[in-house]
Amino acid sequence: MNRKYKFQISEIRELLRDNELLVCYIEQLPNDLSRNAIEKRLERARKIYYLFSNIGYDKIQLVKSYSALRISKLSWDKIDAIEEKFE
Question: Looking at the record's lineage, which domain of life comes first (predicted)?
């Protein structure tokens, strides 16, 4: 196998994991939500989880100027910048 082929397989595995997570999440939600709305909710949750898991759970209370909603609306670059301030 060449390297490019392995990279494509890892991407496929990641997409399958994301799809499994989405299916599991969809089963727990009301039926009237669209797939797009569900994906937006998951993206918001990923941003918040990513930020707090990388800065450390002990520093969560130091993030007072950002609400969960505000964090979810930030771009990934801005989340990385906030993370760097806590390192």
Answer: Eukaryota
